[in-house]
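Title: Comparing notes on inverse folding

I've been comparing how different people in this forum approach sequence design from structure. To keep things fair, I'm posting one structure and asking everyone to reply with a full sequence. Here's the target:
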């Protein structure tokens, strides 16, 4: 499989090169040159297949022969070692819980897949070639990457996160592991962190000293495995024989974009809904036809505090840059912090379901969209465990949550981070 830059000013590359480079030399995101639909028989028999087999069939064309089938299946078996349950919340609405992995966030799958791909590529080389993974996080990405890459031979991880704008548990997950993981605490917002990462990739001084890659969803090995969730949900709900609508809480838009890739592979998804907070760039675009990025605003659903979503250009590519085609496939709604808390309380009081702030927004957006259609099965994605957001949860709900072992293991560890405020300080650290 070959990958091209969406800026169209860089050479095509292999899967391995796209993973290692992260971002193309022309600042563009990599995108697969070809997308082949899966056979109808695959979807007809999907309910007889295990998760590893489903994931293998979905991802193998994008990896090609660069990782042999046996090794790719072994990677997937390791990556998918936890559950992805569908929980019925109310009639025709279910939650797809993606927080049962080691860091209790949906990003565990992509981070683990990318880490194991890099580990595989390093093992195949005659000489060790160190790679520096540089990643910006608005919350859960950092912890998932830290956990996924911990101890991977030949890989150093540097995580940038906005000071005071991630939850205490999220901060613990990315600042307490040590070994090959370093956390840089940035005076600014997530967009500042992301801008620094992108700038580093294009810095010629750094290129001579480091082989840099990113583990944000701009990296194809982080982005594409998120397709698996939508296949797993379809398998679980196939017997309902209803149109499937997915509502995805969205920040950098990698998760929903992966769902759209699954749709391109033939997965029968009727419609997508994006739920956002005050950072409502895409919902506004769908209303006005004008795409305008802006400085991000801090909210209680911090993983969506993104003012310039990186993956939206991939969504446009999947819809052939046709606004009407995109609008037919995607609806978007945004909600305030107050509305989010109301939804959290409502779900607990009426349905005894505890949602995190992101999942609550996904639920609200789904309910809004379902007012326009009938005979549909709605699924909202619960992207992180509610315990990661204790400070913003209502007191009664907070007190009803039992601490999972994944969090208990890190909660009392000492934080270690380095404070930076600009790109020059990041560059100085990397050069040292």
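Reply #1:
Here's my take.
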């Amino acid at each position: 499989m070959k990958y091209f830059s969406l800026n169209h000013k860089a050479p095509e590359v292999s899967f391995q090169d796209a993973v290692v480079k992260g971002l193309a030399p022309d600042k563009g995101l990599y995108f697969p040159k070809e997308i082949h639909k899966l056979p109808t028989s695959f979807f007809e028999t999907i309910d007889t297949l295990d998760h590893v087999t489903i994931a293998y069939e979905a991802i193998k064309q994008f990896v090609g022969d660069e990782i042999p089938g046996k090794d790719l299946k072994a990677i997937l078996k390791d990556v998918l070692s936890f559950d992805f349950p569908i929980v019925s919340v109310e009639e025709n609405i279910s939650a797809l819980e993606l927080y049962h992995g080691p860091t209790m966030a949906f990003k565990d799958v992509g981070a683990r897949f990318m880490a194991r791909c890099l580990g595989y590529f390093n093992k195949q080389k005659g000489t060790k070639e160190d790679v520096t993974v540089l990643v910006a996080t608005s919350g859960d990405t950092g912890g998932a990457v830290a956990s996924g890459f911990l101890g991977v031979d030949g890989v150093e991880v540097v995580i940038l996160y906005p000071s005071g704008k991630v939850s205490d548990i999220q901060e613990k997950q990315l600042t307490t592991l040590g070994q090959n993981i370093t956390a840089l605490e940035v005076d600014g917002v997530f967009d500042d962190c992301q801008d620094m990462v992108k700038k580093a990739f294009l810095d010629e001084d750094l290129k001579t000293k480091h082989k840099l890659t990113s583990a944000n969803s701009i990296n194809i090995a982080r982005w594409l495995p998120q397709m698996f969730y939508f296949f797993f949900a379809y398998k679980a709900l196939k017997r309902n024989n209803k149109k499937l609508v997915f509502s995805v809480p969205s920040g950098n838009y990698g998760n929903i974009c992966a769902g759209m890739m699954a749709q391109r592979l033939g997965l029968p998804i009727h419609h997508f809904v994006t739920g956002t907070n005050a950072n409502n760039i895409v919902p506004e675009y769908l209303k006005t036809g004008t795409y305008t990025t802006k400085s991000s605003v801090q909210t209680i659903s911090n993983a969506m505090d993104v003012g310039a979503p990186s993956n939206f250009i991939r969504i446009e590519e999947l819809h052939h840059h046709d606004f009407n085609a995109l609008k037919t496939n995607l609806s978007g709604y945004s909600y305030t912090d107050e509305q989010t808390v109301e939804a959290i309380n409502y779900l607990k009081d009426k349905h005894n379901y505890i949602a995190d702030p992101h999942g609550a927004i996904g639920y609200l957006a789904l309910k809004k969209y379902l007012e326009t259609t009938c005979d549909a099965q709605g699924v909202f994605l619960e992207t992180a465990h509610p315990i990661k957001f204790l400070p913003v949860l209502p007191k009664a709900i907070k007190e009803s949550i039992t601490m999972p072992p994944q969090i208990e293991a890190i909660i009392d560890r000492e934080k270690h981070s380095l404070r930076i405020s600009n790109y020059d300080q990041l560059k100085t650290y990397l050069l040292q």
